[in-house]
Amino acid sequence: MKPSLAAKLLQVLSPWCNAPAWHIAFSGGLDSTVLLHLLANLANTESLPPLRAIHVHHGLQAAADAWPAHCQSTCDSLGVPLRVMHVQVQPGASLERAARDARYQVFTEVTGTGEVLLTGQHRDDQAETLLFRLLRGAGVRGLAAMPLQRPLAAGCLVRPLLDVSRAELEAYAEAHQLKWIEDPSNADSRFSRNYLRHRVLPVLTERWPQTTASLARTAEHLSEAQDLLDELAQMDLRAANQFSPFSWLHLPSLALAPLRELTDARQRNALRHWLTPLTRLPDSDHWASWHSLRDAKDDAQPLWRLADGDLHRCGERIWWLPSTWSDFSDASVSWPDPQNPLELPGNGQVQLTGRVPGGPLTIRYRQGGEILAVPGRGRRDLKRLLNESGLPGCVRGRLPLLYQGEQLLGAPSLAGLWPAPSDEWQLHWMPQTCDQGLS
């Protein structure tokens, strides 16, 4: 006997039954209305986490102004509390993407530690996603389409209806006499997904009735293939994740030599895996920049600009610098109270320990030609000291220098590669991304 929709839903959600709360993304459309109704009824007979509905009002069309009231009425009848969240959709090339970004920003904000956000995407949505991404030339990760679950803030996003067809949802809604919102924009074929839904998939289904089920199954196969690629990437990255003497920077970095031993395809796979949590990935045409960075001469300092930061190469190591590092200002900063730490704009903080030097103190940054007194070695050119230390070039301009008037008193010692400038005091630097500083 075929299990009921409620039984299927309960089985899919069983791993999250001990979550502190379940949030339902409730647009008021067919999918989320059926999901909310199923969960509210299950809560009467099963031990479920507290249910809460979230309606995001995008303000993109006049008809949407009536939707919060409809959603409130539905939630009241089911005994589920509702939060209506208003968002401002940023204009851009893709209105669909901008609305999605605004919506998921809300979902991130409301999902607490260990909590679950439930959305109503179903099998037909999965088929549309696969076809849409296929036409855009996506790789395996993109063609794996929507996963059943993924991390969201400190919790998890779950799509429990991915194995349920739209026809099943319609049958359930009609059987329970549910009312839902029909978004007028869903009929507008100017939007790519609507074009696929109304103009392409019906033609394919007429010839191949199992089209949506087959496409969804293909997405599952590709998801498994992506899992295998991720395992291979983790194996390949173990050697490249070898110890860095500059771990105190807390910047992601990889040794280049182990990557060079891999084929080009495995290099790209490893880097995609490594970069995925850091930035939006480049398309295929932009991977030539990786080859330029990898093959540059040893004394070069090439960089690869990506959507959310830059990948730098310094010697035989590559470093990820997030775009937030661009907020750094190299203007001098006076230190009126050196007994307390000094915040540096976009560059963490510095602190003096020991006997604090007298006189007005300032923090400045390299201009070139600085000479530093090094105990046991006399006066040394700072540039040469930095070259000896191997400090990544992309960080050297951020090294704070302590001045007394126009006199350079010292710089933070680099991991013991040169001694502290004085036995009486030490300058400690804690970069903005560090949990531990450098003295």
TrEMBL record:
SUPFAM superfamilies according to UniProt: Adenine nucleotide alpha hydrolases-like, MesJ substrate recognition domain-like, PheT/TilS domain
Keyword Lipoprotein tagged: no
Catalytic activity: cytidine(34) in tRNA(Ile2) + L-lysine + ATP = lysidine(34) in tRNA(Ile2) + AMP + diphosphate + H(+)
Alphabetical UniProt keywords: ATP-binding, Cytoplasm, Ligase, Nucleotide-binding, tRNA processing
SMART domains in UniProt: TilS_C
EC number per UniProt: 6.3.4.19
Top-rank EC class of the record's enzyme: ligase
Lysidine-tRNA(Ile) synthetase C-terminal domain span: 361-429
Molecular function terms from GO: tRNA(Ile)-lysidine synthase activity
InterPro entries, per database record: Lysidine-tRNA-synth_C (IPR012796), Rossmann-like_a/b/a_fold (IPR014729), TilS/TtcA_N (IPR011063), tRNA_Ile_lys_synt (IPR012094), tRNA_Ile_lys_synt_N (IPR012795), tRNA_Ile_lys_synt_subst-bd (IPR015262)
Binding residue positions for ATP: S27, G28, G29, L30, D31, S32
Key word Cell inner membrane present: no
Cellular compartment(s): Cytoplasm
Superkingdom, natural source: Bacteria
Short name of any one Pfam family annotated for the protein: TilS
HAMAP family with a match to the protein in the record: tRNA_Ile_lys_synt
PANTHER family: TRNA(ILE)-LYSIDINE SYNTHASE-RELATED
Recorded family membership: Belongs to the tRNA(Ile)-lysidine synthase family.
Entry remark concerning the domains of this protein: The N-terminal region contains the highly conserved SGGXDS motif, predicted to be a P-loop motif involved in ATP binding.
Function field: Ligates lysine onto the cytidine present at position 34 of the AUA codon-specific tRNA(Ile) that contains the anticodon CAU, in an ATP-dependent manner. Cytidine is converted to lysidine, thus changing the amino acid specificity of the tRNA from methionine to isoleucine.
Identification of the protein by name: tRNA(Ile)-lysidine synthase
Species name: Pseudomonas canadensis
